[in-house]
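Appendix B, record 7
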Amino acid sequence: MAATVTKNASKADVGGTVDTINKRVSGKNWKVQKSATVRNQQPKQLRKTWEQRSKERARNEASKTLERQLKAEKQAAKDEKRAITLERKKLKEEKERMEALAAKMSAKRLARLKKKELRKKARV
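Structure tokens (predicted):
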């Protein structure tokens, strides 16, 4: 008759016993055994309490916030200068265009007046 499993049977009875010190349950014996981090074995700089770490984190966050704010202000000033320069450039180009048009109009008007004078001289 087949072996029956009772309610009280443990996993070791069902799956067989495994020496957990030397072998893994999964059978992946080539994997490196890992252990929990022990705080006492870490350097003193890393051995900090939660309060110390949270204070340091808050201090770093405050300094980063200030740094971001200063960078944003600097960028805003830079953008404002760039916008002013661009506006001045557009005004200058428009002014030059208008002057060129005015000069062209004057030249045309001068040419018309010269033609008119020539016609008057031809009549006389």
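Remarks on this record: The mean pLDDT is 82. The helical segments are 11-15, 50-123.
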